[in-house]
Specification:
The protein is of the alpha/beta class. The protein has one domain: 3-Layer(aba) Sandwich (Rossmann fold), CATH 3.40.50. It has a seven-stranded mixed sheet, with helices on both faces.
Length: 219
């Protein structure tokens, strides 16, 4: 039986070597970090980063927009500390917690981003979160999501079924944060964002199983 690990403990145990792993071993990530930075709107002042980890996406974004204000949220304290050490001169508000319960400022952020973090959650939880993100953005705000996405509906269904089975066998509640990949297809991701209120949602980039979606509040 695959023993599921608590989400924060899973990533804390992998903080050292995490950057190298993502850049060198996960197909599409290195290219998607650069693509995400390119997609950030030029008028950016305030950015919300969900599941910011060690800030690999911020490394590239800061190259283009060094003076922005960033609110970063992540479950893993050791990853946030590594981010602080990398960018001691940047305007960073870092929050150790889960982005489902941490409050967001409404109508404040010009852009929100998430990188390889949303593929752990159910459709319902994602819609609830996407509505929070929608409300946090300015009228012309943009949400950019880069994530591991399933290639087919059958693949997505398998992951969700396995996750439910492992949680049931190990006595883990559906709302507890344990690490297991449950990627959606990019078609389903688009539907979830549209159901949350975004009017323009486009799949703009894919390399391997790593995809990027851009969602806008206005057309």
């Amino acid at each position: 039986m695959d023993k599921l690990e608590r989400m924060d403990e899973f990533f804390a145990a992998r903080t050292e070597g995490y950057d190298e792993h993502m850049l060198e071993e996960v197909e599409g990530c290195k290219e998607c970090y650069a693509e995400m930075a390119r997609l950030v709107p030029e008028n950016i002042k305030n950015l919300l980063d969900l599941g910011c980890g060690t800030g690999l996406e911020l490394d590239r974004i800061f190259e283009i927009y060094p003076d922005i204000n960033v609110t970063g949220i992540d479950l893993t304290a050791s990853m946030l500390e590594k981010l602080r050490q990398k960018h001691p001169d940047k305007s960073l508000e870092l929050i150790c917690g889960d982005y489902f319960t941490v409050g967001f400022k409404n109508n404040f952020y010009d852009c929100a981003v998430s990188f390889q973090t949303m593929h752990h959650f159910s459709h319902d939880k994602k819609i609830t979160l996407y509505k929070k993100i929608y409300d946090s953005l300015t009228v012309e705000g943009v949400y950019i999501e880069c994530d591991y996405m399933a290639e087919t509906q059958e693949q997505e269904d398998f992951f969700f079924t396995e996750n439910a089975r492992l949680r049931r066998e190990q006595g883990i509640g559906a709302d507890e944060f344990y690490h297991y990949d449950t990627p959606c297809t990019f078609e389903n991701q688009i539907k979830l964002l549209e159901n949350a209120g975004f009017l323009s949602v486009k799949h703009v980039f894919r390399l391997g199983a790593t995809s990027t979606i851009v969602a806008k509040k206005t057309l």
